[in-house]
Amino acid sequence: MHRVHRLCPRYVIALCAASESRLCLNTNLRLLTAARGWRNPNGALLNGIMAILLIISYTSPSSVLFFNIAYSSDGSDVVVPVAIAGIPILLLGVTLLLQVVIVLFGLRTVTILTWSSSPFDVTAALVYHTRLTPVPFQCMRSVSDVFGGPAKPSESQPRSWRAHSSIRKVVISLWGLVVAYAVWGVVVVLSLEAAS
Fold first, then answer.
1. What's the DSSP call for residue 35?
2. Rounded Cα–Cα distance for residues 118 and 7 (Å)
3. Does 55 share its domain with 127?
4. Which of 68, 74, 99, 188 is the most buried (most CB within 10 A)?
């Protein structure tokens, strides 16, 4: 299901490359790239909803089974057999249903030329169906160098921080998550100490 949702934006962007000018050299999607338009099933809004649904679908099964520990009058623990919670199962079912609806809506709006996730196969399919036009003498340029003629390969590869702006966004987001988790851990520890 997520493979289909991953391949649909590639073709949406490739088929609209002339108007959006976002996929002119290769078929690898950039980080944090989505099709334009809020109502587009491969757009930023539904990609965000799909990410939240994916998180819920991974976390809800861990809440289905739990042990119910009851204490007897003499103080010894009596473990009641495994209990099954219905709400996480219902939540998982609704989450999977919504994911299927989004994926089917995405499949309805785009033509998939090949199911391969290899950039070479996708590029060959796009060139074959005249959806992507090869740029002569572009093979020695990096993806960030859109314009220019033939060039000798650089002696060293540029740092990824300077290669593309989406790399900076991802790195800053990941470090921001580290700080947010640390703050959350401090809040939890302080609230547990205050409760004791």
1. B
2. 11
3. yes
4. 99
